[in-house]
Specification:
Blueprint lengths: L3 E5 L10 H14 L3 E7 L19 E4 L2 E6 L9 H20 L8 E6 L2 H7 L8 E5 L3 H8 L3 H18 L4 E4 L2 H10 L5 E3 L21 E7 L7 H13 L4 E7 L3 H10 L5 E4 L7 H7 L2 E5 L12 H7 L4 E5 L4 H9 L3 E4 L3 H12 L2 H19 L1 H16 L1
Parallel strand pairs: 1-2, 1-5, 2-4, 5-6, 6-7, 7-8, 9-10, 9-12, 10-11, 12-13, 13-14
Antiparallel strand pairs: 3-4
Length: about 400
């Protein structure tokens, strides 16, 4: 009998960053192993805040993509990065799922895998999941972001409400899987009693591999990914301003898109940062080449968000044998990962002087630069590679089918 897996997620390919590539890899791998895999999602819009043109008409709402049945629902996109700009599309997805499933259209079968950064996706699944079939993947903890990035009485009330909803939903899943020990600890503190497992976002180490050429452009710094509030990219602009004076030969490329893109461009112009260049996101097929271009990568976090998410791009950077300098709260998962891997440099978020010093020291120490890159690549092969992580998920899914 063919085993079935139903994946419910707002983020899926062709969205190029965030959880979408991870979920596509998850679905594709299980399909290749002979499982019947379906994905229920929305028309892609992340991180551009607009529906991708080729999907807008709905002609691609029901397709088979690399052996995976993909069902897409219409959605809305709201400008800005506020809480409502996130919650309204997520609530619409929840209501759309209920309407579809009540009409017995594309109901989830077999093991159901629901993805949070939208807790409302997990909420939508609960009434339709049979006992012993529901796995909730927690890639972000939404209430934490609301608490760290928004202020005022209303924001505090909303954060508290979201936290209670998260706890209620996750306690009704059969298994919770999150990305890190810090996130697991946070969920336990919130009152989640469901069994919580840890699995990092898988990386295809055959696709993302080091270059045979060991030459590294030490003067090219690369930030790649979402341009949003939680990335706190003001730190990169402050770094650029310092480097214009102290190391004018160094250049910074910011490659990405997101809710803060226009603001970042405006700030670059205001500060006359001639050493910063903006570039669009590249297709997945060009990701390896794009990552290899950066001699040193930049990974910035808002100081209050480290317990609530792990930037999955760090594993892709390590996979290609590059290193990075990260800014993060000292009790965050990134600091723990640094100690575990010895693959990158971590400094306290918001400390521009240390940020500059770390970049300059690393750029002048080629042996250390290469050593950190090699350490990261080896760590990915042993702990984060596609086959290692997916065998964990196979055991989990097969145990639920048993």
């Amino acid at each position: 009998m063919v085993k079935k897996i139903s994946i419910i997620t707002r983020h899926y390919a062709p969205e190029p960053i965030g959880s979408a590539p991870v979920m596509q890899g998850f679905a594709k791998w299980f399909s290749q192993q002979g499982y019947k895999v379906s994905v229920t999602t929305v028309r892609p819009s992340y991180p551009y805040k607009k529906i991708w043109p080729e999907y807008a008409s709905g002609k691609l709402d029901n397709t088979i993509e690399e052996g995976v049945y993909v069902h897409r629902h219409p959605t809305v996109t709201l400008k800005g990065s506020g809480v409502l700009a996130h919650l309204i599309p997520e609530a619409l997805f929840c209501l759309t799922l209920w309407k579809s499933w009540l009409l017995k259209k594309n109901r989830p079968e077999g093991t159901i895998v629901s993805l949070c950064p939208s807790i409302l996706t997990i909420f939508a699944v609960i009434p339709f999941a049979r006992k012993g079939t529901h796995v909730a993947l927690v890639h972000d903890i939404p209430s934490g972001f609301v608490a760290s990035l928004a202020f005022g009485k209303i924001a505090k009330m909303l954060s508290s409400s979201l936290r209670h909803l998260e706890t209620w939903c996750l306690n009704r899943a059969d298994i919770v899987v999150t990305l890190s020990s810090s996130m697991k600890s946070q969920l336990i503190r919130q009152g989640v009693k469901t069994h919580i497992l840890i699995a990092p976002p898988q990386v295809d180490a055959n696709e993302l591999r080091p270059s045979v050429d060991t030459k590294v452009n030490r003067n090219l710094l690369l930030y790649s990914g979402n341009l949003g509030k939680k990335q706190a990219l003001d730190q990169v602009l402050e770094l650029a301003a310092q480097l214009m004076v102290r190391a004018p030969q160094m250049k910074i490329v910011i490659q990405g898109d997101g809710s803060q893109a226009a603001l970042i461009k405006e700030r670059i112009d205001q500060l006359c940062l001639t050493n910063v260049r903006l570039k669009p996101l590249v297709p997945r097929s060009q990701l390896r080449h794009a990552l290899l271009e950066g001699g040193i990568h930049l990974v910035t976090q808002h100081p209050s968000s480290g317990e609530f998410a792990v930037p999955s791009k760090v594993y892709s950077i390590m996979a290609v044998g590059r290193t990075f300098v990260a800014t993060a709260a000292k009790k965050s998962e990134l600091w723990d990962l640094k100690r575990e891997t010895d693959a990158f440099i971590c400094i306290a978020a918001g400390d521009t002087e240390q940020f500059v010093a770390a970049i300059l020291a690393l750029s002048e120490d080629t042996p250390r630069l290469l050593e950190l890159g090699q350490n990261g690549h080896e760590y990915v092969k042993q702990h984060v590679s596609l086959d290692v992580v997916m065998e964990f998920y196979r055991s989990l899914v097969d145990g639920m089918h048993a």
